[in-house]
Amino acid sequence: MVSAHLYVEGGESKEDQIRCREGFRKLFEKAGFSGRMPRLSACGGRGSVFDDFKTAYALRKVGDYIAMLVDSEEPVEDLERTWEHLNRRDQWDKPVGASDEQVLFMTTCMETWIVTDRRALQEHYGHSLQENALPPLTNLENRNRHEVHDKLVHASRNCANAYRKGKRSFELLAKLDPAVLKKHLPSFVRVDRILKAKL
Hints:
The chain is of the alpha/beta class. The chain contains 9 helices and 4 strands, in the order E-H-E-H-E-H-E-H-H-H-H-H-H.
């Protein structure tokens, strides 16, 4: 039995870390990982994710799958060369022996995943959602993360539970349909493919 541990970006408070883990757990269950779920740790910001990953990677046992799931922050030239992207953008050095499959990206941010599933947004927000204010579904992963986030906030501004990071973002994450994400997002296709191979 492979031991798998995924360090996730998200959750600044203890309560939000619980919600973050729950949101990703529900999404991964719907993607077919029930019964072989990796252990999920919500670490807060990107730097904390990398620190926790490095510690766990140094202490790993043979056969363990240790990975981190982070926002790419910017469009990625080559999704399979994740450490190259992190080194160029964040000056993060790949630990000796680590592979590109140990970095899973939300490209460019978690909000990209959220705005992709229009049905989940409609069901969550109801008629007050201004859907035409959301970014178009074409080339979503090449859009600036601030643009994606701001358009989601703007589209939900008239809703009682208007979008913001934290509790509300993780509630939405749990409602997303993996099939819809795979249709539009190469980064999610890659996450799904790697986890299916590793777990």
